Amino acid sequence: MNPFHSIKAILFDFGGTLDTDGVHWSEKFWEAYQAAGVPIKKTEYEKAFVDAGDHLVSARILPHYNFKETLATQIELQLQFLEIHFGLPSVYHNHYKEVILTYAYEEASKTLDKTKQILERLSQHLLLGVVSNFYGNMETVLDEFGILKYLQVVIDSAKVGIRKPDPAIFRLATEHLGIAPQNTLMVGDSFDRDIIPAKQCGCITVWLEGKSWKDEVGGKEADYIIHSLSELETLIYNTKLF
Ligand SMILES: [Mg+2]
Questions:
Q1: 70 CA to middle of ligand 1, Å?
Q2: Are residues 129 and 233 in the same domain?
Q3: What is the tens place of the pLDDT at every residue in 172-200?
Q4: How many domains does the chain have?
Q5: How far is the CA of 22 from the centre of ligand 1 (A)?
Q6: How far is the CA of 90 from the centre of ligand 1 (A)?
Q7: Final residue of a domain: which of 108, 131, 165?
Q8: Residues 26-51: pLDDT tens digits?
Q9: pTM for the full model?
Q10: Residues lining ligand 1 (ion), CB within 5 A?
Q11: Longest Cα separation, the chain
Q12: Which structural domain, as residue segments, surrounds residue 209?
């Protein structure tokens, strides 16, 4: 029997996967910066993105923060960094923040709407879960977009104290589901943080290869590669994965 014919559960990454369908958040924010006309170079912006990510610890984001508040916290840190290190005039701070936030939120909301429909259909046949390096408010955000009700497990790194790429975070999710890793698909956009550790844990991996700010090579190690979440159902049913 082909072992791939026995999928009982799917785990998903959230950021870059369910909310942007494969577009890395650094790229999504950069689109928003351009829409806002922020006068900085992409290399400067990338430094701000990394710095804000490093400082976006759970202490800054509270468990009740919704998606917009989460994005706003991130954008605030990025703009502060650009003002301090690259002389971005602070006089337009609030204007830039508002335009970037509106753009990023609306884009992600549209994608999450489509994602919700996919998860709704998959939930009729399979157990579903999310495994995310998030900030303690993953469930709040999933509920906000009507997705939480389709999930049997949500692992938020800030809550469990384990972060990707530690394979233990995927083991924890499969244990919660009561499904063996070899009967579990893991779908994520990060080759290093999703695919490699999920494979180490024994899951079958689906790499959502999208638009990333750095080339992630080595995709051949993923069991399957898709370029949009909309390809997932076709993959599962045509390949008779369950
Ligand atoms: Mg991701």
A1: 16
A2: yes
A3: 999 999 999 999 999 999 999 999 999 99
A4: 2
A5: 8
A6: 31
A7: 108
A8: 999 999 999 999 999 999 999 999 99
A9: 0.93
A10: 13, 15-16, 189-190
A11: 65
A12: 3-23+110-238
